[in-house]
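Why do we care about 3D structure at all? Because function follows from shape, and shape follows, mostly, from sequence. That is the central idea of this module. The next example makes it concrete: a single protein chain, its amino acid sequence, and then its structure expressed as tokens.
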Amino acid sequence: MEHPIFDNIRTRPRFKISTDTSVEDYTQLIKNQLSQNKDEFSGNINHASAEIYVKNGTQDYWSPKLSLRAENEDGKTVVRGIFGPSSAVWTFFMFLYLVFGIAWMVMITLWFVGRQIKSEDYGWALPASFVVLLLILGVYLAARFGQKKAKSEMDKLREFAVRSIKNVEEVLN
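And the structure:
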């Protein structure tokens, strides 16, 4: 039977584990694992945080990363991980959704108000709202395209995370 933490890592972009290993030891385990897999992965590892990338020659907007952060909580080390694009990419896509969503609401409101007051001045707002909906669809499709292109890299990062947890469990036993 599979360990529930491993299932959690496979199905969620965020995970959290607790261990008796110290933050320093966990950081060293991640450094060792990264150096053992230096042909496949690269990353930055600081005292209590790490960012792991899959080496693929180019970094595209869809290229995922694994961010790990280890902290002391109640005498245990808690490791939090998140899979996904860089925060700049995520923020950019959310910004586009916000801007286009607000633009759609403004356009549909202008059209509706113009219709209520029987004014022909805002007839352009309905077709413009459809254009904005198409832009929202374009942003969604670009995000889905990026997710599909990054699937193999995401699987490699998930396997890296599972191996790092197995390494922690081996140290504890």
